[in-house]
Amino acid sequence: MKRWLMIVPLAVFLLVAVFLYRGLYLDPAELPSAMIGKPLPEFSLPNVQGDRTLTQADLLGKPALVNVWGTWCISCRVEHPVLNKLAEQGVVIYGINYKDDNAAALKWLSEFHNPYQLDIRDEDGTLGLNLGVYGAPETFLIDAKGIIRHKFVGVIDEVVWREQLASLYQGLVDEARP
User: Fold this and answer.
1) pTM across the whole model
2) 20 to 30 A from 36, CA-CA: which of 64, 105, 134, 151?
3) Region 5-32: what's the mean pLDDT?
4) CB neighbours of 5 closer than 8 A, spacing ≥ 6?
5) Buried b (16+ CB within 10 A) or exposed e, 10-40
6) Are 165 and 156 in contact (CB under 8 A)?
7) Is the peptide bond before 63 cis (omega within 30 degrees of 0)?
8) How far is CA 139 from the centre of its chain?
9) Longest alpha-carbon distance in the chain
């Protein structure tokens, strides 16, 4: 009986060691999303640059990047020039200004240019919460029907775009062609 009592701590240690070892090979930037394969959540929110109310229906019709950003987000400032460049190349980008002051968002878009075809004001963070947003920047790839196909957490720079997201986006564009 005493022998078994001596083996139990060893077994527990080995089990914990296996989990810790496995964790060494996980990508901390890869956060799973329960929203993959589901439509964008329904919402009715104002846009940043006016009094227009936007809904999920406004984001349908074309594959797009849905970028969650905020003026308080230092990483978003790093990402923003790349988004401007992508928009100039014809990539459809919708923005969700997350938990931010609208005056600050307007100043940001005026100062750093606006890559967003639509810019949604999510001051309370309800849309972000429904999307499972952890922070900013986070970007969702949606198809023409508004189904979320991929989620990327972190800064989209030119390497990330070229090596991870461009082919996914192009695949959605090709899929949408008649």
Assistant:
1) 0.82
2) 105
3) 62
4) none
5) eeeeeeeeeeeeeeeeeeeeeeebebeeeeb
6) yes
7) no
8) 2
9) 75
